[in-house]
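Is guanosine-5'-diphosphate placement plausible here? Inputs below.
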Amino acid sequence: MPGLVIVGAQWGDEGKGKVTDLLAESADAVVRFQGGNNAGHTIVRDGEEFKFHLIPSGILYPEKTCVIGNGVVLDPGILLGEIDGLRRRGIDVGNLRISANAHLIMPYHVLLDTAGETKLGKLSIGTTRRGIGPCYADKALRLGIRVQDLLDEKILRTKIRAALEPKQQALRELSVQRRKLRKEAGEEADKASAEQAIGGAPDPRLDLHAMTEAHVSYGHRLEPHIADTSRLCCEVLDEGRTVIFEGAQATLLDLDHGTYPFVTSSNPIAGAACVGAGVGPTDIDEVWGVAKAYATRVGAGPFPTELEDEVGRHMLERGHEYGTTTGRERRCGWIDLVALRYAVRLNRMNALAVTKLDVLSGIERLRVAVRYRSKEGAVLDRFPYHQSILHSAQPEYEELPGFDVDVTGCRSLADLPLDFIADFVDVPIRLVGVGPGRDQVVRID
Ligand code: GDP
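Reply from A.M.:
I modeled the complex. Tokens:
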């Protein structure tokens, strides 16, 4: 502290929300720095469950500033829904600040995401179809609409028009595809809506005027929260107070360093916190990684330690491994220390939080992957840089004694089989999750 980054050390859903919530106790601001509403953090407080897709996990502390940084892409309708939901549950969102430079997920991004995945068929990436990838693509193409644009109707309209125009072809293809699908399903072709899907028609999702109007009204509601959040973060840090930079998704889904193309469309690693929040590398003092005591992955892509047996089912069911955002079943497997060591290096982690140890209770022999064996029989101690090698790599395991005790009441590290992990990746484990509740955690100083 005072600049602390929290990142996912595996393929996401590691329990970053809970760890952020705990560490936020001694922080002044919590900033999300990348991703969109494809993330889903769950926090359980006093038996009550909160799920966040966009709002930083610190929101449950009314006195902390919560920031949606410039690196995040946000769907304003979804964000307002989340704000309303929190207000209904009596949570004050007065301290929520949104970067004026963050990009907006527009209705055409959502349609393009779905169309892209449908087109890929079996090769689909497994995106959440929330428009995140197309939104980041428009950002890079300099066709993005930013939060600040919501505050100027004329600019907003001009920018939406410019962004829509080059998409006509793609959207036309989409409507043709839709018609084809309907025909295949034996439905009456809804000619009107298929044709109207191409700008200028009354489909509110694609009509320039309706879209502009809806977004102007989003702007009115979001205006009190819009700010220069880079300045805000720097001011907090300059006063010697603590800022937590909260990553979404995880290291192995990183656009540059993950298992491309089965990755997210942003950079969830610690280095991206600076860009996505508008601070400098010298502001970062500590990097914490969050890993489950086993491993899960949503969507397609290589996963060497995946289990398709009763142990995998045990993890799925005991760990409630269903996506917070999509409800999809997560693929489950043993913890992969080759991949974890790679994540430790990429993020230059100082500390690890290991979550969901309780889920492994009752499994007689625990396994941890310590190396891979390539198709040709070569021993791979490091995470291979070539995707084809990773796809066919077979994990080799070390066995650790299992435990049958109920660890959910456990509050000390003795007897928990974690030393091996800390030694292997050479990072101290500072927190161990032994249940979803806020107090079901072992802290190690
Ligand atoms: P995030 O996106 O990394 O924050 O992870 P999610 O919120 O999608 O998934 C974590 C899930 O695991 C949530 O339902 C948490 O309540 C739950 N969880 C977190 N830590 C623990 C733990 O130590 N044990 C158990 N059983 N559940 C946990």
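Short version: The first strand starts at residue 3 and ends at 8.
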